[in-house]
Amino acid sequence: MAGRKVHLTIATSDYDHFRDFKSGKIEAEGIDPTWMELEIHEIFTRFAAWREWHVSEMSFAKFSAQVSEDNPDIIGLPVFASRVFRLSSIYVNPTKGIKTAADLKGKRIGVPEWAQTAAVYTRGWLQHDAGVPLTSIDWVQAGTEDVGRTEKVSLNLPKGLNLTQVNDKTLSDMLVTGELDAIFTASIPRPFEAGNQNMVRLFRDYREEEENYFKRTGVFPIMHVIAMRRDILNEYPWLARNLYLAFDASKKRAVKRMLDGGASRYPIPWLFDQAEKMRALFKGDFYPYGIDENRTTLEAFLTWSFEQGIAKKLMKPEDIFPEGINPSVKT
């Protein structure tokens, strides 16, 4: 039938930069989307295990594990749902004498999952920026606040690396009691929020550390990507580019709202001033989509994901996105 659109199911958490696409203010040409707004880990688990929808937000680490398999059934879009600098995600027990990154060598450090994206970035920083070999750490895997959290993808850990799974204790409890020296975790631990004196950030002024890291390396960590099933893309090869254009247009509208100094569109004081400073720091677009715009970050993460035994092979950015997804189109 002429004019018939392709129906796609899309699952993401709630993001302002997706809002206008989700609401229909921005349309993807030829596509009729059904959006599901679910809790992040619900999305990750169901799509990683069962591919319940066509397009999905996905942990970059778990995506890299699955897209690097032989004949993968998913592919990515260079659209990034979440980006967070992660030097704020390192917590230590202050009785352990850990003052600098170098002091982490030889320590016992916990992670919620080895294939957690945030932990991939902090370990990449630890090894390549701080010079602490990952094999010098006694690693522990457990849930941050709940016991029984396990890995969601298969691992091929580097030779000499020691990782122990603990099923009856949490990272938060083990750090507070001193059983662990430090933890790397994306979520803010409950004891830290409650002011427990046995849990502090390694970097009290993490903003300065993270800005200096970005200036030094050019890495702006990508946490969550958008993945899509290859079967639907094989049937309609134009879907990827049209989805990308809609996501990008929606993001640009969100950024424009932040830079609107004439109205307070978000309940955060001085947000316009902050957005202006970020535009200067990032030399323009402070939340870029696309491959070339993010090549430094993409290449770093794909390297670390492979080095840390998550990705099955070393990939280039062009290996994980559809061909022609991000061409330069000029008129």
| Amino- and carboxy-terminal Cα gap | 31 Å
Return the domain count: 2
Radius of gyration: 20 Å
In N-to-C order, the SSE pattern is EHEHEHEEEHEEHEHEHEHHHHH
- The CATH class label of the largest domain is Alpha Beta
Tell me the total number of β-strands: 11
Helix share bin: 25-40%
Here the CATH topology of the largest domain equals: D-Maltodextrin-Binding Protein, domain 2
- Overall, the morphology is globular
Helical stretch count?
12
Strand order of the largest sheet: 8-7-6-9-5-10
Q: Which structural class fits the helix and strand makeup?
A: alpha/beta
Average pLDDT reading: 96
Strand content: 15-25%
CATH superfamily of the largest domain: Periplasmic binding protein-like II
Please provide a written account of the structure:
- This protein has 331 residues and is α/β, with parallel strands linked by helices.
- It folds into 2 domains: 178 residues, Periplasmic binding protein-like II (D-Maltodextrin-Binding Protein, domain 2, 3-Layer(aba) Sandwich); 131 residues, Periplasmic binding protein-like II (D-Maltodextrin-Binding Protein, domain 2, 3-Layer(aba) Sandwich).
- The protein is 34% helix and 17% strand.
- It is built from 12 helices and 11 strands.
- The strands form 2 sheets. A 6-stranded mixed sheet has the order 8-7-6-9-5-10.
- The longest helix is centred in the C-terminal third of the chain and has 20 residues.
- It is globular, with a radius of gyration of 20 Å.
- The two termini are 31 Å apart.
